[in-house]
Design brief:
By secondary structure, this protein is α+β, with helices and mostly antiparallel strands. It folds into three domains: 107 residues, Beta Barrel (conserved putative lor/sdh protein from methanococcus maripaludis s2 fold); 92 residues, Efflux pump adaptor protein, beta barrel domain (Elongation Factor Tu (Ef-tu), domain 3, Beta Barrel); 149 residues, OB fold (Dihydrolipoamide Acetyltransferase, E2P), CATH 2.40.50.100. It has a six-stranded antiparallel beta barrel with strand order 3-12-16-14-13-17. It has a four-stranded antiparallel β-sheet with strand order 4-11-9-6, with no helix packed on it. A hairpin with a 2-residue loop joins strand 20 and strand 21. Helix 3 runs antiparallel to helix 4. 19% of the residues are buried.
Length: 406
């Protein structure tokens, strides 16, 4: 009897133990099953949510003023960047100096004045100016006498009435006086004085300084009453009518440039106004510091204030090819890659939704706000792309990816 009771007790304990093991096993199985399901669901959701797309409602589309059009081809010019400055030909610049030491009695112009050739810029006076005029008048009158005496002596000499020695002395005096008078006349002409009036003994109290060219007064370097030495620079005159642009191109780019190419450039004074020029000549010698060659370009649209010496920045159009292109706003850089966005419109139950998908591209030349596009793979026929807000689309897409990862 005791033996039966012990046997029954052992069976009960064994049964409970096995039941507990089974229960633990079932709990473990249940836990693993739930984990697997959760993992599979997470992976599936991750796969579904990681789509690289941006979705806009019609309201969002319109509020951002999105421009969606087919990708088209356009003439895009490759270019070489060049810097330089505006210049005028040497014959269009003049420096006015004093030809003799004198005082400035009056100044007739100011900087910026438009003047014409021969116009008086200032007046000079000094006792030396009076003296050179009186010396000229005296020498000229003596020359008139010597000329008649030379003619008389030559006639007597030809008739064998006077000696050759006397004739030679008269001839020598006459020729010396001619040289002296011509020297005075050269100086007086440089001063702008009228020789005919001087020969009538009309002496000028002051001497005019005249402009040698048409143009503008660029610089006044003298004051009233100042004594100026001969060859002292008093005025600078410039004629901007033939102003041109001189650019410098570095050695590595010189093989790309040639005569006849167009240059688009801006000046520092008007950075929002683009001007154009045509290369007229290419230098044949290098500047050594930096090593570059000079380009001379004739400006086509001389609008606005163009002043010699003004700094300019330009782009030389070297090649012109037809390729796919988008406005700069339609291309975005992400890391070391560039992207554009295709655009698809879907309508469901009267609602419109736009889907934008990034497409990696290679960018080429940039020409006047347009970027050359080289596709890495063909787009679907008839597909449209975003022409603007590419930066915003990329930021919105990255924002969505970040929220999903979180």
């Amino acid at each position: 009897m005791k033996t039966n009771i012990k046997l029954i007790a052992l069976l009960v304990i064994f049964s409970i133990t096995m039941g507990g093991c089974g229960s633990d096993h079932n709990k473990e199985d249940g836990h693993n099953h739930g984990a697997n399901e959760e993992s599979e669901h997470h992976e599936e959701g991750e796969e579904e949510g990681h789509s690289e797309e941006v979705h806009f409602s019609e309201q969002q589309f319109e509020s951002l003023a999105m421009k969606v059009k087919p990708l088209t081809k356009r003439n895009i010019s490759s270019y070489v960047e060049a810097n330089g400055q505006l210049e005028v030909p040497p014959q269009n610049e003049a420096t006015v100096t004093a030809v003799i030491g004198a005082n400035v009695s009056s100044i007739e112009v100011i900087e910026g004045d438009k003047i014409h050739k021969g116009q008086v810029l200032a007046y000079l006076n000094h006792p030396n100016l009076i003296k050179i005029q009186t010396d000229y008048v005296s020498s000229w009158n003596e020359l008139q006498y010597l000329e008649k005496e030379f003619e008389r002596q030559q006639k007597l000499y030809d008739e064998k009435i006077t000696s050759g020695k006397e004739f030679q002395k008269t001839k020598s005096d006459y020729q010396s006086k001619i040289a002296l008078v011509k020297g005075f006349e050269a100086q007086l002409k440089n001063m702008g004085l009228n020789l005919d009036k001087l020969q009538q003994s009309e002496i000028y109290n002051s001497v005019p300084l005249r402009s040698p060219i048409d143009g503008y007064v660029r610089l006044v370097e003298v004051k009233t009453g100042q004594f100026v030495q001969p060859q002292t620079e008093l005025f600078e005159i410039v004629n901007n009518e033939h102003i041109h642009a001189d650019f410098m191109v570095f050695e590595k780019d010189m093989h790309k440039v040639k005569e006849g190419q167009k240059i688009k450039f801006i000046s520092e004074s008007a950075p929002d106004k683009e001007l154009t020029a045509i290369i007229h000549s290419v230098g044949k010698a290098f500047e050594q510091d930096p090593k570059a060659i000079h380009l001379h370009a004739e400006i086509e649209n001389k609008e606005g204030l163009l002043i010699p010496g003004m700094y300019v920045r330009g782009r030389i159009m070297t090649t012109d090819t037809e390729n796919y292109a988008l406005p700069e706003a339609g291309v975005v850089r992400e890391g070391d890659k560039y992207f554009i966005f295709t655009a698809e419109q879907e309508k469901d139950n009267g609602k419109t939704e736009w889907t934008f998908t990034p497409v990696e591209v290679i960018v080429g030349a940039n020409d006047d706000g347009w970027v050359e596009i080289k596709l890495l793979k063909l787009l679907k026929k008839g597909v449209k792309v975003a022409w603007n807000n590419a930066y915003y689309l990329m930021a919105d897409m990255k924002k969505g990816e970040a929220e999903h990862e979180h």
